[in-house]
Design goal:
4 domains; 14 strands; alpha+beta; 32% helix; four-stranded antiparallel sheet
């Protein structure tokens, strides 16, 4: 038996106190709250299996890097080092007994060789949530599109890091745009008459597409209108995918009061709970943090060629976020892939995609100096207003293509996470002998 006083990590101390009974301890010979050694050791061994990578968790590429190329980018060790150093149990009074009790497969693998363990901080090629994302995509495309039994549970797990107790979104993922902030909309004009029509009534012409004409977009399917904007006029011009020679009309809008938006560009700032290798869910949290970074790219990815279902996954996620957080935020912020993620897009939920027929008039310097002009007031249901005198007319001169060129095929198909881990050690650098333009 082991008492809570003879275990140091708080997780194990809590385990003993929660499950133990009053009795004598085999190590300190005092009476206290104790559990059997087997119960404590089994818990630790379960966490090793759950939170430490085994050989089967490595990709073929990672396996070859370690055993063929001798890379030390991934820590490799045996069970005793895992327990003593990674789990920080080397100074525990029961450590020798713990090592004596390890399962046989911790020592020798099925091939009769020493078992190796690998440090997994969420950056290995295989990610739990990437696997589940692939299942999610397959499910909504080819199994249950409208009443998918697994989609809700998966998305609940994906976005659990974004909320505090009571389903409240964490402040670090919310972006607030107040009255006066600029958002941009644009539309191509086939001729002078169409440009004049837009210019004469930008609130109507550059508002959300009517329901009966709303086509499938990145976040919304046919028939569901939502307002897509950009935080920069240049980004707005790129996002409408105009071609050389097009005439484009753009306008600036501003929130009538303020807009609160779930900012997908800030997902990587969300930290997982403070867990250790001895805690249940430690590795799951690390994998989720890594996946959230890649989710931003998935949500921003342009529609694939000849793939009518490309946007299906992002449409499902958008609808999920709208239903779950629509009372807290008015829409989403995501990076613009058309600008190489240098620009920023936003999409408002349909309920917030209402533009006032009254233009917003910026206060003059005199108004600001003397503070004698109250803020302009709009109807409560109106979320945006066109900024007076913000119309601009553009002739598209050229479309430029930017590309990153690699010297090896590995660089082209490597994920950002793997590139970050191995890029410095191996030659996956950008080729410098070709110019892109």
């Amino acid at each position: 038996m082991i008492c809570s006083a003879c275990v140091t990590p708080q997780t194990l101390k809590d385990l003993v106190n929660s499950n133990g009974l009053l009795g004598p301890c085999s190590y300190c010979n005092k009476v206290g709250t104790t559990v059997s050694k087997s119960a404590l050791f089994d818990y630790i061994f379960e966490r090793v299996r759950e939170n430490v990578a085994a050989e089967d968790d490595l990709s073929n590429y990672e396996h070859d890097l370690i055993y063929e190329l001798g890379s030390d980018e991934i820590n490799v060790t045996s069970y005793d080092i895992v327990l003593s150093e990674w789990f920080n149990l080397g100074d525990e009074v029961y450590f020798d007994d713990l090592c004596d009790a390890v399962p046989a497969d911790f020592k020798i693998n099925i091939r009769g060789k020493e078992t190796h363990f690998y440090n997994d901080d969420g950056l290995l090629e295989r990610n739990f949530y990437e696997d589940r994302w692939a299942e999610f995509i397959n499910g909504i495309k080819h199994a249950h599109r409208f009443f998918n039994p697994n989609a809700r549970g998966f998305l609940d797990d994906v976005f659990k890091l974004l909320v505090t107790t009571g389903e409240v979104l964490k402040p670090e993922v919310i972006r607030t745009l107040d009255q006066g902030a600029e958002l941009f909309r644009a539309r191509t004009a086939a001729n002078y008459e169409k440009a004049k029509e837009i210019a004469d009534n930008p609130a109507s012409q550059l508002g959300p597409t009517p329901k009966d004409r709303a086509s499938s977009q990145r976040m919304t399917p046919n028939g569901i209108p939502a307002l897509y904007c950009a935080l920069e006029r240049k980004t707005c011009l790129s996002e409408i995918r105009s071609i050389t020679g097009d005439d484009v009309v753009s306008v600036a809008m501003t929130p009538t009061t303020s807009l609160k938006l779930l900012d997908l560009t800030k997902l990587e700032q969300v930290e997982p709970p403070m867990l250790t290798l001895l805690d249940k869910g430690y590795l799951d949290a690390q994998h989720l943090k890594t996946f959230l970074k890649s989710l931003v790219k998935k949500m921003s990815k342009p529609k694939g060629r000849n793939d009518e279902l490309s946007y299906l996954s992002t449409q499902v996620v958008f609808e999920y976020l709208r239903l779950r957080f629509g009372q807290q935020v008015d829409g989403l912020v995501f990076p613009s892939v058309q600008t190489g993620e240098k620009g920023t897009n936003l999409v408002l939920f349909p309920e917030a995609s209402v533009i006032s027929a009254t233009n917003f008039e910026r206060p003059t310097e005199m108004d600001i100096a003397f503070r004698d002009k109250p803020p302009q007031v709009f109807n409560p249901e109106e979320k945006l207003a066109v900024i007076k005198d913000s119309l601009r007319f553009h002739k598209v001169k050229a479309i430029t293509t930017e590309a990153t060129t690699y010297s090896r095929i590995d660089g082209l198909y490597m994920s950002d996470e793997v590139r970050m881990r191995f890029g410095g050690a191996f030659n996956f650098d950008v080729a410098e002998d070709e110019e892109e333009g």
